[in-house]
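ok new one. same drill as before - structure tokens go in, u give me an amino acid for every spot. 420 of them this time. try not to just spam alanines like last time pls lmao
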């Protein structure tokens, strides 16, 4: 697979002059124009026979006026499809990989590769990035991984060397392997500052630890500690995401006011009200428990965990429904690991089950993910000044969310068309 940049030179329908040019009819341009059957943005605006003009990696025009196509621009014909903004997966783990060595399990193989074969781990992460891009995800927020894999992968994708979604990375993340209250304020601040120095785009905190054998979770930080981590992250200019499965831990995390909260079930109306007041975005990651349930043997999980995963999914779905009903902003996060890449958008089906319309689910998969890390003025819409991240789907995404999940036919990221 490679990115293809169309470079065919032609003149527009009326042979428009380039800015400052002549009327000779012979002109060239590095700009591109995408023609779409229609364009749907997350605010619900629909443009029939839409035209999107792209200069370098940004959008310079959105509308239906053919005269806006620069003379000599390359024209990409996606008129058979409906255009949407590139999707945002607000929670992935590209470095959680296994080479499926016989006799090994994923959670033990990943750290072995990290310490013994990092080049192999990087290559596996490249494959995960490609599989993610295929789903229409053009932006991925990695919430916990090794800097020596994530930083070069992010750079390769930005340069166009490696196909994949635009990456925003938390590096390693912050966790506590002692007990709540074990660290001083200065130590906690230092942990955040270390993330800055390691090149993180955001801070990730694990506020509880959960057993793979029982699925039980215990808090690892006090409220005061979480507040220091949140405040320090914001002082350093970084958004912060807090992982909190259990409702008691989630309550502490929500009160601390992070930019996003990952996974929790058991949320009530008070929790939702606080999230709205503080602007915290909820990333439920419902489908990742379906993924674990469907792959018990692959992970070496006991068969009786299937019922526990089902119970957690029900509680997680109920929390998402409650949050949506109250008006909490929800973002799509797959929590993709190992063989889960390529299933990144399955979460959208759960959102519709939780009461969202297809348009609301699209909003969760675009602008809300962007808002969770403060980049909503660059990604999440097809609009002037935004990155040229556009996907083409077959069917009507406003009528059926499966069109977004299974109907992606073309992908553009930063003005580059991916050829699969």
């Amino acid at each position: 697979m490679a990115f293809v940049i169309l470079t065919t030179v032609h003149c527009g329908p009326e042979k428009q002059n380039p800015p400052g040019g002549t009327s000779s009819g012979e002109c060239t341009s590095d700009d591109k124009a995408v023609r779409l059957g229609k364009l749907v943005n997350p605010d619900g605006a629909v443009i029939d026979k839409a035209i999107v003009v792209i200069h370098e990696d940004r959008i310079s025009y959105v509308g239906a006026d053919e005269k806006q196509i620069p003379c000599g621009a390359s024209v990409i014909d996606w008129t058979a499809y409906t255009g949407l903004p590139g999707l945002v997966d607000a929670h992935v783990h590209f470095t959680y990989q296994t080479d499926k060595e016989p006799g090994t399990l994923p959670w033990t193989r990943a750290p072995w590769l990290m310490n013994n074969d990092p080049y192999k781990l990087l290559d596996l992460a490249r494959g995960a990035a490609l599989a993610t891009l295929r789903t229409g995800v053009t932006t991925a927020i990695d919430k916990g991984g090794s800097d020596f894999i994530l930083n070069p992968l992010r750079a390769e994708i930005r340069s166009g060397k490696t196909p994949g979604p635009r990456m925003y990375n938390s590096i390693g993340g912050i966790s506590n392997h002692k007990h709540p209250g074990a660290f001083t304020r200065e130590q906690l601040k230092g942990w955040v500052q270390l993330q800055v120095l390691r090149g993180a785009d955001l801070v990730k905190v694990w506020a509880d630890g959960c057993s793979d054998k029982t699925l039980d979770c215990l808090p690892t930080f006090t409220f005061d500690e979480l507040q220091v981590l949140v405040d320090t992250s914001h002082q350093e200019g970084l958004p912060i995401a807090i992982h909190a499965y259990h409702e008691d831990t989630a309550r502490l995390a929500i009160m601390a006011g992070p930019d996003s909260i990952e996974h929790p079930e058991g949320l009530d109306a008070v929790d939702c009200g606080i999230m709205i007041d503080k602007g915290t975005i909820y990333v439920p990651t419902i489908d990742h428990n379906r993924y674990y349930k469907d792959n018990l043997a692959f992970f070496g999980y006991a068969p009786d965990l299937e019922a526990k995963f089902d119970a957690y999914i029900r509680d997680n779905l109920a929390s998402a429904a409650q949050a949506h009903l109250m008006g909490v902003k929800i973002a799509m996060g797959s929590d993709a690991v190992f063989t889960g890449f390529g299933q990144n958008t399955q979460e959208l089906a759960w959102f519709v089950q939780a009461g969202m319309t297809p348009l609301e689910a699209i909003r969760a998969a675009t602008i809300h993910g962007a808002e969770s890390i403060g980049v909503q003025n660059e990604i999440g819409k097809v609009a002037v000044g935004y990155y040229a991240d556009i996907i083409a789907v077959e069917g009507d995404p406003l009528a059926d969310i499966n069109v977004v999940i299974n109907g992606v036919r073309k992908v553009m990221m930063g003005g580059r068309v991916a050829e699969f």
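The chain is about 35% helix and 20% strand. and btw The mean pLDDT is 93.
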